Amino acid sequence: MPVVTHTGDVALARAEYDRRSGANLRYALRKRFSWMQRYLGPTAFAVEVGCGAGFSERFLKVGRLELTDAEPHPWVARVVDATDLPYADASVDVLIANNVIHHLAFPDRFLREAGRVLRPDGYLLVQECNLGKTTEWALRLTGHEGYDWSADPYDASRPCNDPKDPWSANCAIPNLLFDDLAKFTQRYPMFEVTEAGLSEFFIHFNNGGISARVPYLPLPEAALRVMDTIDDVLVAVAPRFFAAQRRIALRRV
Fold first, then answer.
1. Alpha-carbon distance 171 to 102, whole Å?
2. What letter does residue 105 receive in the DSSP assignment?
3. 29, 14 in Cβ contact below 8 A?
4. CB count, 10 Å around CB of 247?
5. Residue ranges of domains in the chain
6. Separation CA 251–CA 244 (nearest Å)
7. Rounded to an integer, what distance in angstroms lies between the CA atom of residue 172 and that of residue 169?
8. What are phi and psi of 23, to 5 degrees?
9. Considering the domain 10-252, what is its CATH architecture?
10. At what angle do helices 221-237 and 24-34 cross, to 10 degrees?
11. Tens of pLDDT along 131-179?
């Protein structure tokens, strides 16, 4: 029996959200979105690419939040290609990409499109996987998603994933892009890194799955806060081993 089931069934994930046992998923999602709130204002126009089940609208308060995805769903305002955004130049205040970039066939095209549509001093807010050693082992064990360290996310002509499959994944992409921030900003001088950090070990591996079902131990909020504190220590001591998620805030200069 596979460890991970119902992969990519975002309609099921959305329908089951309030029925999930424990506070695990709610805690993980709040952690991944709450840091973004300081970049959002009451008059801002924010666009989320690859919104999946659309959970961001439960956690973020902003003047206008437009949910977009590569696939149509009732909660999706627009079906868009993240590498060819249907927005005018300098028309978006904040662009949100939550665990999306590692699914893109051409990350470079997305980053350049983000630079085009963002207004000056606008932000690209990225929450992504981090391919630490434990994540590598988990992916090998479950076969849930793949990774390829030989990919070049800066190459706009060679795909890092299957262009025909929006759920195709290369979990090495965020590391290849963001481990060397000096190289990143040299390649994309339109962006300034204003925030970067690593997080999550137990919170990541015990959330029950975001757009899939994964076995987990249901826990109350208080226990998850303790677990999160342990995660902070583990990530601080050995980030390359334990960190399973990362966040990056990029200002359009």
1. 5
2. S
3. no
4. 20
5. 10-252
6. 24
7. 9
8. -100, 10
9. 3-Layer(aba) Sandwich (3.40)
10. 50
11. 999 999 999 999 999 999 999 999 999 999 999 999 999 999 999 999 9
